[in-house]
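Worked example 2:
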Amino acid sequence: MSFNRRNRDDRSCRIEPLEDRRLFAAGALDTSFSEDGKASIDINFGGITLEASDVAVQQDGKTVVVGKFALSATRSDFGIARLNVDGTPDRTFGPQGNGFVRSPVGDGGDAAASAVAIQPDGRIVVVGSALQESGFDEDELAIARYLPNGTSDNSFDGDGVRTLDVGNFSSWSYANDVAIQGDGKIVVVGRTYRVPNDDFFVVRFNPGGSLDGSFDGDGKKFIGFGDEDEARAVTIDQTGTPVTNPHYGTIYIAGNASFASSNARVGLVRLNPNGSNVDSFDGDGKVTFAFPSRGKTFVSGVMAQPDGKVVIAGHSGGDFFVARYLANGGLDTTFGGLGTGFASTDFGGSESSGGIARAPAGGSGFFVSGTSGGFAVAKYTNDGRLDTTFGTGGKARVAGFGGNARIAPGPGKRITLAGGAKFATARLLDAGANVVSVSPLFNSTAHEAGRQPASLFVYRSERLPVPTRVFLASSGTATAPTSPLLVGRDGSDFTGWSNLLIIGGGPRFVDIPANQTFVELPITPVDDTRVEGNETFRLTVLPSAAYDIGVGSGTITIRDNEVTALTATADAYVRDGSSAGLNFGNADELQVRNASGNNRRTYLKFDISSIVTTFGTAKLRLFGSAAGSGSVAVSAFGAADTTWSESGITFNNKPAPTGSALSSQTVTSTTARWYEWDLTSYIAAARAAGQTTVTIVLRNLTSSPTHATFASDESGDFRPQLWLTPRFTVSPLTPLIQL
């Protein structure tokens, strides 16, 4: 026996970290499962075949497939396989360590599993039919329960297996579906022959395997629609709690009424938790439905929705169909978009449906699976319309696999299909599956002062039971450490880079742990003595075949506590004379001059709201020169008015300076360089008074034949700055996103 993974062995899945391709559209095959989204099981000795009939996904993301292990046309056993999240066989499952269990059931040597359900404690319940040669040589309901490792659970009916002649001396009983109640009781539905017709049967077992006598008096119930009838699917409304949901515990059974006749139609039954019919549901607890003008109609699945509504799925006239019933048994005409309560879906061929499942991982809508030249699946919105964000117009196919696919939600934002020969299994992506991102999320600024850290978070869109390896590249002006042992001595600006692992000479990566959605990468600055200004560290997610990319990069700013520069929020110069009414706010220079009829002053505005503690010095820095021979004495003043705008200020409306000069500097050289004015006391007093903005005015108090010219904000380089030296910090940022 071998598990096929598209021409490769069953070693752990390899990752191709740099392949630049987008794979993660809803409806696409999940290539993290068996490398191409498909897996199957071959039997390596003659005459033995496998046929899958149902699939379930465990809470840990592993996939359980059940069906028939056939030795010949007349001899078969239950077959159960379990796959790891990556599609490899689960070597912890089964007595032979190959991920497969062959389980003889009954004494006639002919048994087949039809459905599977997983208990919350991980035990696996499988139902089907088994030939019993003792007594009346008939097929009976067969149920088996297995421990999570695949061995028989002997606490169930003494040996893990039970067969039941449901109809008492009937010719046959076939179990088709199973559901597990919140109290551990097991509900099984199917078809049994009771003279003169086949009927639905419903059987409820206690957790230990005995019949539950509180269910319809003896644990069994039969429902007929007057002809050959077969229950195909069961679901239990267990949304919310018995207090919040008046329909909690309601049992819905759907199947085929008169399945052998040209009048084949859907039969739908609603039962109270004790097994009695819900009489408010169409008067007697059951309804029938035939899709108009399409011939035979068959059901494959049933799903409870809020408010007592129930959705059935099946096929009719070669197309999928879905329909929704209200709590009173009437069709819900708001469903399907046509005002009828039902809708059909054509894949372009002759389709048969296999099952229904609600969208996984908190998603919206539901899926119907089946076959149309291979596995086929359609996604619907909650109101029964095709969800066009999935596949092509709401539909997707899996080529190369025959058989009628059954469906299970998960793991994560995925759906899993199984059916047909060789236990064929496929996994498709739903919207938002395995999207990874990197972002600061909370605080994007770290500070040398006090070595205050900030963090980048690498996160994924879904909580998975396996880790996700995310490959990253770094950039920015901050120097990363070359080794954790050399931090600070190798010129590095921060620690934390050592959290990112390296494979040989390959890209750095982090692993988001199993059952978590993110990993935090703290970036802690090195408090050095270098004057560097503010620097940045940036991480970018590299493409990989293992995920799609959401927020592709995130940046941390590291504030230098040697010098922190605030740039001007507005700057302009003004002129008197014939230019007194003109604005020069968009000029690439600032001018200062004192000459008769040709005075020029510069106005600067700074936002100082980020300064929250004491600092050493605060100096205005301008890059400029004298425009001609001689020198220009430039004095800095404060101004109370901070409401002026860069595009509106003129000599006529300029704010008046207040008090005496704060600081003076003589501009002497015709070669441009940096000049500084000490504003420490003025800025400290402004912050102490609660000011968030200051205006600085530059004037020449003595007459001069020349003028001083400085680079403005519009120059692009050497912009006006307010430099602050040690003991300066800024206020923390407001969280951007909550995890």
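Residues 680-688 form the longest helix (9 residues). Residues 5-23, 728-739 have pLDDT under 50 and may be disordered.
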